[in-house]
Amino acid sequence: xxxxxxxxxxxxxxxxxxxxxxxxxxxxxxxxxxxxxxxxxxxxxxxxxxxxxxxxxxxxxxxxxxxxxxxxxxxxxxxxxxxxxxxxxxxxxxxxxxxxxxxxxxxxxxxxxxxxxxxxxxxxxxxxxxxxxxxxxxxxxxxxxxxxxxxxxxxxxxxxxxxxxxxxxxxxxxxxxxxxxxxxxxxxxxxxxxxxxxxxxxxxxxxxxxxxxxxxxxxxxxxxxxxxxxxxxxxxxxxxxxxxxxxxxxxxxxxxxxxxxxxxxxxxxxxxxxxxxxxxxxxxxxxxx
Length: 289
Known about the structure:
Elements: H1 2-40, H2 45-50, H3 56-68, E1 70-73, H4 79-90, H5 109-114, E2 118-120, E3 132-134, H6 138-143, H7 149-161, E4 165-175, E5 198-203, E6 214-217, E7 224-227, E8 234-237, E9 244-246, E10 254-263, E11 279-281
Antiparallel strand pairs: 1-8, 2-11, 3-4, 4-10, 5-8, 5-10, 6-7, 6-9
């Protein structure tokens, strides 16, 4: 009797595995189609001909990013902009950070995913809320910065990706130096975005070896690379292609800006607030919000 039950369970596991395999195959086909459509309607090849060709530094950056799937840009934000964020964040308290009431529920999951073309992590782990402080209305703060930060990130990203892009997610968060032995993002992982997308992580304070530096594994030789840098340093990296983690800050908490960049037809430089936490759009080439 027990052996028969075990055989049935094993059969169910194999069936479930094959269903998942088909699901991920369909997802990969959708992602590839999305990327190719974005390339097909992209205007950015003109930039490569008329601008990148005449800018040696930009040419080298594009070539490096294409080969390594990451690029470090020192002083991406100037001191005035960094100080604006840090001065503003000093005035924040618990009411300004995401809490459990901000997490998406599954009430409208069918409508969101089929009609509105949204993907939201409905099972977001609440323990993250004790590991990081995520600013609730980060779009308001970004839009009041001394520079047009969305446009700055997008302009650089379009050169690197050779495609029009949209910022699907923007975050400002603090990785807490609170004695945690592990955090949700402190283990090696890949993100579940399409391969042609990438993240832009910008340090808002100086980050040394024990201050929560981003780490990746090189796609060339699989060696670990640790990104230490001064405030204002930006790391562009393909988060679904490169295995990465956020190391644990031991000396002090780490503040950073985080943008998730996707290829699309209509570039989106203005991001509206009021969206559920951990929200992003997938495979929507036209929506400009």
